[in-house]
Amino acid sequence: MYLELRDIIHVPDASKPFQFQMDLSEMEFYGQRPVSRPVFIEGRVTNHAGALVLEGSAASLLDLRCDRCGKAFSREQTARLDCLLADRLEDEDQDGIVLLEGTRVDLDEVAGTAFILGMDTKNLCSEDCRGLCGRCGADLNDGPCGCRPEADPRLAALLRPPQ
Questions:
Q1: What does the alpha-carbon distance between residue 140 and residue 49 come to, in Å, rounded to a whole number?
Q2: CA distances from 16 to 73, 154, 159 (A)
Q3: Burial of 14 (0-12, 13-18, 19+ CB in 10 A)
Q4: 81-47-118 Cα angle (round to 5)
Q5: What is the number of other CB atoms lying within 10 angstroms of the CB of residue 11?
Q6: Is 50 left (phi over 0), alpha (psi -120 to 50) or beta?
Q7: 152 vs 95, which has greater pLDDT?
Q8: Considering all CA atoms of the chain, what is the largest pairwise distance in Å, rounded to the nearest integer?
């Protein structure tokens, strides 16, 4: 979605709100599609003494799978939108500045990038998830499995009785 800014570009303290939904359901992350619901984007662009500032948020509920135990779970994901808008860059290394396309900004690009970059690379159903047993595959969140602890072969000499 493009937001036309012609009416606030040269008007100090003017602002223009925006609100829309974006579909990222076709985006694949590590073989899965966690963004099955619409992403809700809202915010505003404000002219602060000639500088256009875009502020807002992008939020959705993600359908994820725990990286330790494999259980499916859902989690709210919110990304903050905060950048300056400019018609040209003075320097190539100016992070946080988005180029205008004439007098409009591509909100899909800004919000989509912020939302995707804000996603976690490791997803856990809970911070204390114990995962699966490496030998029998039992879910350790349900309790201990029946496997006997295996001694480290480097310490096997310490386990033998003295002679």
A1: 58
A2: 37, 67, 73
A3: middle
A4: 5
A5: 10
A6: left
A7: 152
A8: 91
Spatial separation of the C-alpha atoms in residues 39 and 117, rounded to whole Å: 14
Res. 99 pLDDT band, cuts 50 70 90: confident
d(CA 43, CA 86): 18
The residue written with tokens 């493009």 in the block is 2
Query: What's the one-letter identity of residue 129?
Result: C
For 134, the token pair is 């490496």
Task: Select the more confidently predicted residue: 151 or 1.
Answer: 1
Strand boundaries in the chain, DSSP class E? 2-4, 15-22, 39-48, 51-65, 72-86, 97-99, 104-106
Spatial contact of 62 and 119, defined as CB atoms under 8 Å apart: yes
- Which residues sit opposite 104 in a β-bridge? 4, 101
Please check whether residue 105 is in contact with residue 2, taking contact to mean a CB–CB distance below 8 angstroms.
yes
CB atoms under 10 Å from CB of 74, counted, come to: 13
